[in-house]
Design goal:
The protein is mostly helical. The protein has helices at about 1-40, 60-75, 85-95, 120-135, 140-155, 180-195, 200-210, 220-235, 240-260, 270-290, 290-305, 310-315, 345-360; strands spanning about 40, 45-50, 100, 105, 110, 115, 160, 165-170, 175, 335, 335-340.
Length: about 350
Amino acid sequence: MRRIVIPLLLVMCAAASGRAQKKTWAALLYATQSYMQHHLWNPSTGNYVLRADYPNASGSDSWGITIVLDADAYMVSEGLMTPEALKQYFVTSSMLYPKTNGMTGARIIGRRGDQIYVGGDDDLQWCAVLAHCFLVTKDSDYLSAAESSFKGLLDLGFWMNGVSKGWMWNTADRRPDGVSTAYGALAAARLYEITGENVYKQWTVASLNALRTPQVGFFPRDMMVAADAALTAFEVSQDLSLHTRAMELLNSAVTGGLAMLHHEGPGFRNPTDIGDLADGLLHFYEVTHTARYKSLAEKFILYFAGRRTLPDIAERGFFSQYDTKGEPMMQGTYLGIPDTVPYLSEVAEMLKLFAIAEKSDK
């Protein structure tokens, strides 16, 4: 009898611990959501503003919008948000930008005379997130937007076929870069997952192969996004070469990410750079059930939240740069915004991470 009771008690304790951790993630999510509603939401436009010190700004941020949509999709999958609320934000945020083909295509972020500015990294991530929204809701509007964005970038010549192949950074810089190419792989992999069309598998493989050639920057977060893409395409195709590539990229991403966290030197320690590491690791955990991937993901997430109280997060949000001890640095700027000012992308990234972590603790 004892040999039966002891394992049962262990299982019950593990289940109780899992429920407690799930509640912790949910509490962190709600605190972050509270910060966003009180400091970043502009009710007159139905959008989040770029930075907390301009709460009444009329516009938003293309990158931040993408991350919010991703977070919302995870919350819909967990029943923490309705599909209707996700759709409403998709509509209002999409309306902020004209598209390369009128109502469809890639988002035009800015104009200067006859010149348009389109961000490859911004829109390939948006495309990947729209595919995620479709996978959660099965609403064809998201799939249509994802495919038209992908095609819009191709039509603009964002895929480079020179000596160094890959996805172009933006319309002002035609060099291929790591983040665009990695998100190009993920967008294609998710479209392959949805449609089963081999052309998207070919785009996934081409993008992953391009990352072996010189790119403008190829950082741990980019490696993890690419690993996520390879794993997604492997799940559909069972092509073992994709599994091998996924594991290569995963190991490189984790090694580089841990070094970036704990050693002084170059490399940004901020939610968006570290967040994609946790995001990818939790996908690997979901597929393989390898506990190490989950614990590593939580390590990355708690780097930014482990020393914070819920009221503090609800009042102050999250910041752009952190030191090796996980404390915010307040004496510089990041992407032109003072480090003392939380802005949409970094706060939304934490919202997304808490939503994914909450989902993983079932």
